[in-house]
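User: My instructor asked us to take a sequence, write out its structure as tokens, and then describe one feature of it. I'm not sure where to start. Here is the sequence I was given:
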Amino acid sequence: MIEQPSDQFPTGRLPAPGDVMLRLTGEITTKGRRTRSRFQKQLADNVRDSLESSGASCRIRSDWSRLYVRADVPVEDPLSRVFGISSFSVVEAECRADLDEIVKVGRATFIDRVRGKRFAVRARRAGRHSFNSQDVKRELGSALLEGASVDLTDPEVEVCVEVRDDVALFYSGRTAGSGGLPLGVEGRAVCLLSGGFDSAVAAWMMLRRGVALDYVFCNLGGDAYQRMVLEVASVLADRWSYGTRPTLLSLDFDPVVAELRRAFRPALSAGGPETGDVPGGGGRGAPPGGRRDHHGRGRGAGVVADPGEPPGDRRRERVAGPAAAGRYGQGGDHIPVSPHRYVRAVIAGP
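Assistant: Let's start with the prediction itself. The structure tokens for your sequence are:
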């Protein structure tokens, strides 16, 4: 299968020297045929989105275990951030799947690079051929041995040959991908984003497992705090969410905080002057913002009431909890923030 944009860029057989060969993660290659086909199609769509978002024109060919990419600009950076790719390599040469031809082209491609250095030949083969991988290693290694030495454990230069059906591809080394599953194959979810370290890492780990995310931000710190969270969301959306368009919902929590302050009425202690010992009139021994319970223990604000307390105290704490916050979950406008990735919806209380 070959995918190609409308401008037909560029033409010619694919793969060819200069093209990029993508290897799928093991989590894709171990799936059944129908699931694997769906995952590979999603991966090809995500790869295309990553390249076009970087301003590249491209062609993509999807084989059963490889994807081949041709673009008019370097693509290593965006490809390294597409989930579902184990590694990738730039094809340096190609020839017919004939042993003599492989030795000839391989020697011409790598002889100058291995001279005076330690090298190793790595070969992989798929399909029916009159030779095997060991034959390729032995014959090509012998042809490159002039002025060089073999080191299979720690080589300075790796000469890699991949023979698939009627084509042999040559490359040196590989670049690690991000692994995981193609983004979008595991549906969508919502992630609470705080702007701190933990929530961003949790979001990235979910993206790596193929889950497309939308984000919810509860704004308790004003415009400056919101701008910081938007920067974090922009990194996740623009650099790690190829193939999807996330949405960020920014919830204005100022009315919620005001309601919490209005609804919470700390009880005054009968101890007279002791009420001034701590904020909130909690008496001696009560933590800041709290009060002493009927057993004489200090208890902070927001802690669930003791079962032995009068019902009125527990009722006040319930009002100051989810019941009050739940009043501000509707309404709002969708405001575009990034033309490429996500839209922010500001939801304000009445």
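For the description part of your assignment, you could build on this observation: Residues 1-9, 272-287, 294-340, 342-350 have pLDDT under 50 and may be disordered. Try explaining in your own words what that tells you about the chain.
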